[in-house]
Please model this.
Amino acid sequence: MDLDVFVSAHRSEWDRLDALLRRGRRLTGAEADELVALYQRTATHLSLIRSSAPDPQLTGRLSRLVARARATVTGTRRASWRDATRFLTRDFPAAVHRARHWWVPTALLSTAVAVLLGWWIGTHPEVQSAIAAPDELRELTRPGGEYETYYSSHPAASFAAQVWTNNAWAAALCLILGVFLGLPVLWVLFQNMLNLGVGLGLMSSAGRLDTFLGLVLPHGLLELTAVFVAAGTGLRLGWTVIDPGPRTRRTALAEEGRAALGMAIGLALVLFVSGAIEGFVTPSGLPTWARVAIGVAAELAFLAYVFVLGGRAARAGDTGDIEESERSATLPMAA
Model:
């Protein structure tokens, strides 16, 4: 494409669109129709320039022009309860369901790593001695020790808030850092599995594995699932950088990034539930079977939410991205 010739051929259309936009609402019916037609043509011009002869200054000017025209044509859209309902019943579960091929294997492999670390630590006294001194280990694992009192060391409400903040931050890191080829996600995930493996190993070596599982399972099932979903999504985002598929890398990252942002909000709500369980149920006086049953029920409810409700929404075409009418205008690109 000869950029100078292209600009000369279409500059008058862009100037006319700019002039119509400056008039705001003072347009006749014919002028409004003209504005829509010029908006569509200018969006096409922008896509052609981006793909064939990218020029930063011209691209910036046309991007601003298209954005202004789009805002005028579509109007300002305000969030409503309908948006929140759609997000909770369609967008979020569909996005999690769509990412299942990433987070389910992540969950299985991570759990296996935690169990192996727990077995290694629990069966090798020299490893335990490298973690802490014998007196400190006994203080951690004894009845009424630090592993047990940790869940009741603070008022339930403040403890739940602290747990939610920590877990939401870990999930956000997985989603945000995924764009760096997914490598930081693997580190965050390993740190979580290492902490779990240390607890498993030390408590099992002290003959108190049942107590440890009774404390961890009520909130840990849902909490870890949320972390696995975040990690799997982060890894998928990292793979998108490497292999965007038939889409351009920019388009692929934009679509997957918007979906990941929505998942961050949804996972914050899931982690709020697990934090409430950890703050109010785990340290409660309920029998172990009742506390574990609450955790299992919360986990099964989330899985049904994802695979039933989310599966139905995904099959209907929902991806977790914003609606097509709200995306930037682009042209199909040749592979």
Summary: The CA atoms of residues 218 and 322 lie 34 Å apart. The mean pLDDT is 83. The chain has 13 helices and no strands.
